[in-house]
Write a structure and sequence with these properties.
Strand content: 15-25%
Number of strands: 15
Mean pLDDT: 93
CATH superfamily of the largest domain: ATPase, nucleotide binding domain
Structural class: alpha/beta
CATH topology of the largest domain: Nucleotidyltransferase, domain 5
CATH class of the largest domain: Alpha Beta
Helix content: 40-55%
Strand order of the largest sheet: 3-2-1-4-7
Radius of gyration: 21 Å
Shape: globular
Number of domains: 2
Order of helices and strands: EEEHHEEEHEHEEEEEHHHHHEEHHHHEH
Number of helices: 14
CATH architecture of the largest domain: 2-Layer Sandwich
Oligomer: single chain
Length: 395
């Protein structure tokens, strides 16, 4: 069957919702087609908000043994997630005919065949997720050209989206770092002209969610969910109450712009932490790990200061997803931006590790860019599925 007759979907599943879009491969790159669709798990009739995950050590033990013993509530919540993914696909397909190619990103540690979830910190295990989706799509009479080949990482898919999507900020640059913030955080990296999955850098560079500062993980300060949590602590208002009142990161920024001190303090901390993270990436890639931050898992091996990219200078720091949207809204008020730029400039100025010419010429405004691809992982999921299809066709 000719690839010209196929249609392509990209989907990104998260802790609370699923987003998806039809994607068109074009000579200019991959482009969004039509209106994206978003569905939240809480809108499913069987959703229950008090789900408590299985102890992560037990999950990891069962993953290692190959025998995953699902609890009844895991199975029930798994149906909620699977149905929500399928609903998103059905909404996107509408009356269009296939066949369809589908790419799907989802958090958690994958099963051996990469088609299921064997362990997940904030949700149920879904060891047969892609197979369950395919069965339901067959019932919905949606024609798949190929089975869903894998569940990808949202971080890797952010990188793919920025590299191959129209307007992506990994294009036409050799060395760049991406940090995206939503419910969690996602890192992507391009060095020497090629995407470098952070799973391949674990002996010398850690993912941002693995590091912590002042007792908090970087994720709990930089994700939009984390911003809401930090504001909750400072304002003395439970996070559930904030959610019920519709007070999320964007509303916290609005309050800061109206001189709410707790909101200002929260977002200043966001800016400062983001500046520290960008500095750490610049320094570690150029000079090796300098032990500036601690790790969530104290038992993890120490990082090696040596790696094959030593001496490489990052040309661009990209901020994406909802964190990028928040920074876009702060361009005039500069509550986050001022702390971000000042912290980054100060740390680069003080370090003795980076080359003097770089330090003298460094300007945060030239280095930091906001991604316009809010749905970069959706795009990346589609790119991965399409490339796999083409590879299989050529074979």
């Amino acid at each position: 069957m000719s690839s010209a007759k196929t249609r392509l979907l990209g989907l990104d599943g998260g802790a609370s919702k699923v987003r998806g879009s039809e994607i068109s491969p074009t000579p200019r790159g991959f482009e969004f087609e039509g209106v994206p669709v978003e569905n939240e798990y809480r809108n499913h009739p069987d959703h229950f908000k008090d789900y408590s995950p299985v102890d992560i050590d037990q999950q990891l033990s069962e993953k290692k043994s190959g025998k995953i013993n699902l609890r009844k509530d895991e199975i029930k919540y798994g149906h909620v997630i699977t149905d929500t993914i399928v609903k998103t696909i059905v909404d996107l397909v509408g009356q269009k005919s296939g066949p369809w190619i589908i790419g799907l990103g989802f958090p958690g540690l994958k099963t051996e065949n990469n088609r299921g979830i064997a362990a997940m910190t904030n949700g149920p295990r879904l060891p047969h997720l892609t197979s369950d989706i395919e069965i339901k799509l067959k019932y919905e009479q949606i024609d798949l050209l190929n089975p869903i080949h894998q569940l990808g990482s949202d971080a890797d898919y952010c990188g793919l989206g920025e590299e191959h999507g129209t307007g992506g900020l990994f294009k036409n640059i050799d060395n760049a770092y991406y940090i995206g913030g939503g419910t969690g955080v996602a890192d992507a990296l391009k060095l020497h002209g090629k995407l470098v999955p952070l799973n391949n850098t674990q002996d010398w560079l850690r993912k941002s969610w693995e590091m912590k500062i002042g007792g908090f993980s970087f994720e709990s300060i930089l994700s939009v969910r984390g911003i809401q949590k930090q504001y909750s602590l400072k304002a003395g208002v439970h996070i559930h109450e904030l959610s019920e009142k519709g007070i999320y990161a964007q509303q916290i920024l609005q309050q800061a712009q109206n001189n709410n001190q707790q909101a200002i303090d929260t977002l200043c901390e966001t800016g400062k932490t983001l500046g520290m993270l960008l500095f750490e990436r610049i320094e570690t890639i150029a000079c090796g790990w300098q032990n500036r931050f601690e790790f969530i898992n104290v038992k993890r091996n120490h990082l090696f200061p040596d790696h094959s990219y030593l001496g490489t200078i990052l040309e661009r720091g990209i901020i994406g997803q909802r964190l990028g949207s928040l920074l876009q809204l702060d361009l005039d008020s500069r509550i986050i931006w001022e702390e971000l730029e000042n912290t980054l400039s100060l740390m680069i100025g003080k370090t003795e590790n980076l080359p003097e010419p770089f330090k003298l010429n460094f300007k945060p405004k030239n280095f930091i860019r906001i991604s316009s691809l809010r749905n970069a992982p959706v795009l990346g999921a589609a790119v991965d599925a399409w490339n796999t299809f083409l590879k299989d066709t050529d074979a």
